[in-house]
Amino acid sequence: MYALVTGASRGIGKSITKSLLKEDFDVLGTARSSDFPKEFTQHDNFESLYVDLGDPIAIETKLKPIFEREQVPNVLVNNAGVFMESGFENDDESWLKKWDQTMQVNLRAPALLSKWALNRWVKEGEGFLINISSRAAYRGDTQEYSAYAASKGGLVAFTKSVARDFGEHGISAYSIAPGFIKTDMAMDSIDVYGEDYLTEGMAFDEITSPDEVGELVAFLASGKVPHMTGSTFHINGGSYMI
Q: How confident is the model at residue 185 (pLDDT cuts 50, 70, 90)?
């Protein structure tokens, strides 16, 4: 099995990549600028690629050729994302700039990558699309992060649309909706609010480990539950339940 993981150098993407490598996947991981861990770069089954998903030209030139190779990834994990603050009190130009940047990275880029993958998978007869969404897609977020919530909600709807039409081609599509995950991004929030604030309303008194998300991705990518296509897997410490 061969997987493409966006945002693979740190956070959730790092844990996803680690879990896939542990299960003997070949992994092509992308990053915008941060260094990949040595455990990846020294691994025989890992290939790295630097690309800014906020740059449509870079996506076209660096990522589209991946799906034109003789051997292409049969698992695509759209993990990379941005979380930009922009309140409604901001002027229209700056507000829309943040909105468009968020949509580009969180929704437009994953959709385009998925399109390229799906067109190839239809010919190959198998593929697994795993989109990392957010609990914000279901319960919303504060108004400052409404663009983030909207982008993740759109990603879930997109995933369901793929699942409906491509199952007959041996293709499954899943969404994962994490809550607060113990990553660099979450640690910044802990520094501001404290861990007690972030775990308020959870069933546990600790923030979810990214390793749990990685293990879930590896399980879905194994092909053991194809008939769960279109499903969203909620992993949020019980902060909301559906």
A: low
Domain count, the chain: 1
Neighbours of 140 (CB within 10 A): 13
The pTM for the full model equals: 0.92
How many Cβ atoms are within 10 Å of 113's Cβ, its own excluded? 26
Residue 37's domain spans which residues? 2-235
The whole-angstrom separation of Cα 21 and Cα 3 is 10
Is residue 187 predicted with pLDDT exceeding 70? no
Question: Quick one: pLDDT band at residue 240, thresholds 50, 70, 90?
Answer: confident
Residue 94 belongs to a domain: yes
Is residue 137 within 8 Å of 156, Cβ to Cβ? yes
Could you give the CA distance from residue 43 to residue 45 in angstroms, rounded to a whole number?
5
* Residue partners of 130: CB distance under 8 A and separation at least 6: 75, 76, 77, 78, 173, 174, 175, 176, 217, 220, 221
Three-state DSSP class for residue 180: coil
Q: Which residues are catalytic?
A: 148
- Residue 145 sits in a domain whose CATH number is 3.40.50.720
Q: Give the mean model confidence (pLDDT) for residues 29-55.
A: 96
